[in-house]
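quick one before i forget lol
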Amino acid sequence: MRRRRANRRAALAALMGLATGCALPRPAAVPISREFEYSVGQGSQTFPVPVSAVAQATADALADLGMRDVRPRRDGTVLRYEAVSKDDRACAVTIRSSPGSATATVRVGWFGDRALSRAVLDRVAVRLGSSPPEPIPEEPPSTPGRNPYFSRDAVPDSVMLRDQADALYNDRVVP
């Protein structure tokens, strides 16, 4: 009986030692994606250069694409550039440091704009020299998505509430 308990405890200890958890460090070899990714309204890309180089390239890229009111802000180790696009949408570029690289994340407007996010990150790559030089577009590509909450194609209130306006007794509730 004692031997069986000892074997179970040893097996449990071995399993707990092999399992990854909060107390154990993560594996060091995590692959870094260097390609453009777009998810949940924001684009991101990792550059194998320090944050200072990406920050300067981001400021220049935003200016290249005609963004105005470019403001850098720092929150601890995170650097954030805020700007306004030509069509008056907010654009935010967040730069985070990783070991040996920096990750830039772009969000345009409330619901995102894949084409403009990609254009910003492509310009950053050109400014860093990791992509071949290309001309600055006169009109940056933009595909603003439809607003699912306040659609311009929605039924106007005059049509939707017509029956209530035409009712004989509209000032009181009749049982």
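fyi Helices lie at 2-18, 51-64, 114-128, 157-160, 162-165.
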